[in-house]
Design a protein that fits this description.
- The protein is α+β, with helices and mostly antiparallel strands and 145 residues long.
- It is 26% helix and 18% strand.
- The protein has helices spanning 2-5, 15-24, 55-61, 92-102, 130-135; strands at residues 32-35, 41-48, 74-79, 110-114, 118-120.
- It has a 5-stranded antiparallel sheet.
- A hairpin with a 5-residue loop joins strand 1 and strand 2 (41-48).
- Helix 3 (55-61) packs across helix 4.
- It starts with a helix and ends in a 10-residue tail after the last helix.
Length: 145
């Protein structure tokens, strides 16, 4: 299919929409990635087509600093325990997401990442952490989970 080869159907899509679809076609649940700015390893476990959050949450996340703003996909991700920052060093929105989902951890296992900050890993890697071991099954053929 044209989707697998990287060609996207142009019917009904603007050039900008085609570029955005092409950019995210490899970012699916189970994809291993490196965060573009912070360099940590993670695995995608879910996606939201855009940032559907309150104004306060958008401000805490710093959406105004993102090149593509809030109108880009955002991904729920498990972070490798070897790369996690101590809670005191995390940005406030990260606190909110982690506390909301998992209570008071000493470090964050799940984060919310803008598509522009996800760089899929072509090699894949084994993720370390309690959620990773509970929720994910490694698949060498896919170089992910």
């Amino acid at each position: 299919s044209s989707w697998l080869t990287g060609a996207l159907p142009s019917e009904g899509c603007s050039l900008e929409q085609q570029v955005r679809l092409a950019a995210g076609r490899h970012i699916v649940p189970g994809t291993c990635f490196i965060h573009r700015l912070r360099g940590y390893r993670g695995v995608v476990i879910g996606c939201e087509a855009w940032l559907n959050a309150s104004t306060a949450c958008k401000e805490m996340l710093g959406v105004e600093w993102f090149q593509r703003g809030e109108l880009q996909p955002f991904y729920h991700c498990i972070v490798d325990k070897r790369d996690r920052l101590p809670r005191a060093e995390l940005q406030p929105f990260h606190h909110f997401i982690t506390n909301g989902l998992h209570g008071n951890h000493a470090d964050a296992e799940i984060t919310f990442v803008a598509e522009e900050n996800i760089v899929p890993s072509e090699f894949g890697f084994s993720l370390e952490g309690s959620l990773a071991s509970q929720l994910l099954v490694r698949c060498e053929e896919l170089k992910g989970y």
